[in-house]
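testing teh design pipeline on a random one, pls ignore if ur not involved
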């Protein structure tokens, strides 16, 4: 969850870092909370068929179709203004629900859902290999050059 932590630190204006104390948000009117308590982690695909004991899923078309309905219902309930997609294929899977309305960059677009504006950031998975990896090092080029500026841009448009 280090990549998610980095993304949330940016969302909450904390900057990148590894100091746990800086992961707490102190709202003007309310009690402090850990940044993990200030977002919802949602999986686009809720099931998978793959080898037992591995994370190598082999989802079927039926799974994608049925989970699409659940994903759409979840977005409807949560009413997000910012969505961060983690994984190169996740954007394609999410687009039927979060259909691009306006593109800002290759990693940022605006969608409309139930009449509301949603800023969508689309990144590689934090544990991706090679140059797309950004979850384990605070100086990872993808984190510094793509993730951080894209999230900041999305917040400016929110």
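output:
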């Amino acid at each position: 969850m280090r990549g998610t932590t980095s993304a949330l630190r940016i969302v909450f204006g904390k900057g990148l870092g590894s100091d746990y104390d800086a992961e707490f948000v102190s709202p003007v009117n309310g009690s402090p909370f850990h940044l993990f308590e200030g977002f919802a982690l949602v999986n686009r695909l809720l099931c998978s068929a793959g080898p037992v004991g591995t994370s190598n899923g082999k989802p079927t078309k039926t799974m994608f179709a049925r989970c699409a309905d659940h994903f759409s219902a979840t977005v409807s309930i949560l009413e997000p203004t910012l969505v961060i997609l983690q994984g190169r294929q996740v954007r394609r899977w999410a687009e039927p629900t979060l259909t691009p309305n306006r593109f800002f960059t290759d990693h940022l677009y605006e969608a409309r859902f139930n009449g509301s504006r949603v800023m969508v950031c689309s990144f590689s998975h934090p544990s991706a290999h090679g140059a797309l990896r950004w979850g384990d090092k605070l100086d990872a080029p993808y984190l510094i050059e793509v993730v951080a500026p894209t999230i900041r841009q999305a917040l400016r448009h929110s």
